[in-house]
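User: I've been trying to design a sequence by hand for this structure and keep getting stuck. Would you show me what you'd pick, starting by listing the structure so we're on the same page?

Assistant: Good idea, let's start from the same input. This is the structure you sent:
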């Protein structure tokens, strides 16, 4: 699948609730700030942990997010080639934050940020 064929969605067009969101950033990026309901599997671990996607809702695509959209595009392409219905989130967590979507940090009381 070429990058131009990859299903992509803008953050502003994503549902506000019930979103099946997979965050493929590294542990330190996740800890700094992430979407509250996201599932975290770093990109490099995705092939060995793909079974964990079963905990996401089955009736909708898996929206894949990273910091800016590059790693999530690779993950979404791999997932689609593996039989999943995956959509890359354009602009990643940077766009998520700019759109004012909720974020939490791994450390209680810390202000979430995108790294």
């Amino acid at each position: 699948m070429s990058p131009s064929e990859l299903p992509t969605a803008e953050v502003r067009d994503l549902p506000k609730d019930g979103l099946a969101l997979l965050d493929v950033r590294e542990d330190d990026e996740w800890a700094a700030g992430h979407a509250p309901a996201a599932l975290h599997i770093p990109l490099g671990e995705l092939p060995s942990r793909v079974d964990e996607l079963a905990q996401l809702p089955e009736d909708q695509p898996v929206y894949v997010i990273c910091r800016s959209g590059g790693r999530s595009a690779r993950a979404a392409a791999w997932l689609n080639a593996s039989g999943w219905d995956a959509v890359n989130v354009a602009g990643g967590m940077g766009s998520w934050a700019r759109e004012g979507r909720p974020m939490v940090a791994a450390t209680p009381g810390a202000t979430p940020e995108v790294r």
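That's my pick for every position. To get oriented when you compare it with your attempt: Strands lie at 8-10, 21-23, 39-40, 62-65, 86-90. The chain has a mean pLDDT of 94.
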